[in-house]
């Protein structure tokens, strides 16, 4: 059974903290994605990676960075968390172009 | 930028009725996909339709695709309480990334 695992379901952090959200997939997928989901806005792509050490900005990369040192792990970093980064964060992986994406269970991050 | 836009934003139906939701997109695509999200969880893939296909079925799901109108519809027949969820269309923009719309929230009343 395919699996994408996000390190936390719920996270509460303070403004200004550096925050790491981790995502691991066990399907040997080349592509990995980070989305944030906010009410009424749907899923917005933050960053994606189509290979190890490769990354590309999505639609809303400001305030975020990513790291992909190994194929199975894709980390999202909030360099200095702010309250407007309070959101649901979803990680996904896929193989090839236009293929099915498999999602993690989501991390609900609250920045106070 | 977000490619797909779902319509309506919300839908409330009685158990046993059919639910139809639509998706419009802007640029050419390889595939269009539909996903379901139960409250507070990750998305689960439902069905993928290729750009050269017009209709696809999977169980109680029926998806149509009209590339000339850049639109797709998802029909859920004989709805059940377990179908209560948000439904999203996703397009590949001829690229690695998937772009999602804001979704349609479906409530099935017992």
Essential attributes:
heterodimer, A: 112 residues, mainly beta, 4-stranded antiparallel β-sheet, B: 110 residues, 6-stranded mixed β-sheet, globular
Account of the 3D structure:
The complex is a heterodimer of chains A (112) and B (110). With 112 residues, chain A is mainly beta. Chain A is built from no helices and 11 strands. The relative contact order of chain A is 0.34. Chain B is built from no helices and 11 strands. The mean pLDDT of chain B is 92. In chain B, a hairpin with a 2-residue loop joins strand 6 (55-58) and strand 7 (61-66). Classes of the chains: A mainly beta (112), B mainly beta (110).
Layout of secondary structure:
The complex is a heterodimer of chains A (112) and B (110).
Chain A: E1 4-6, E2 10-13, E3 19-25, E4 31-38, E5 42-49, E6 56-57, E7 64-70, E8 73-78, E9 87-94, E10 102-103, E11 107-111
Parallel strand pairs in A: 2-11
Antiparallel strand pairs in A: 1-3, 3-8, 4-5, 4-9, 5-6, 7-8, 9-10, 9-11
Chain B: E1 5-7, E2 10-14, E3 19-24, E4 31-37, E5 43-50, E6 55-58, E7 61-66, E8 71-76, E9 85-91, E10 99-100, E11 104-109
Parallel strand pairs in B: 2-11
Antiparallel strand pairs in B: 1-3, 3-8, 4-5, 4-9, 6-7, 7-8, 9-10, 9-11
Total helical segments of chain A: 0
Q: Which radius of gyration of chain B do the C-alpha atoms yield?
A: 13 Å
The greatest interface between two protein chains, and residues involved on each side, is: A-B, 30 and 27 residues
Number of helices of chain B: 0
Alpha carbon gap, first and last residue of chain A? 37 Å
Query: Residue-averaged pLDDT of chain B, rounded?
Result: 92
SSE arrangement of chain B, N to C: EEEEEEEEEEE
Biggest sheet descriptor of chain A:
7 strands, mixed
Low-confidence stretches of chain A: none
Structural class of the helices, strands and pairings of chain B? mainly beta
Order of helices and strands of chain A: EEEEEEEEEEE
Helix-residue proportion of chain B:
under 10%
* Shape by Cα distribution of chain B: globular
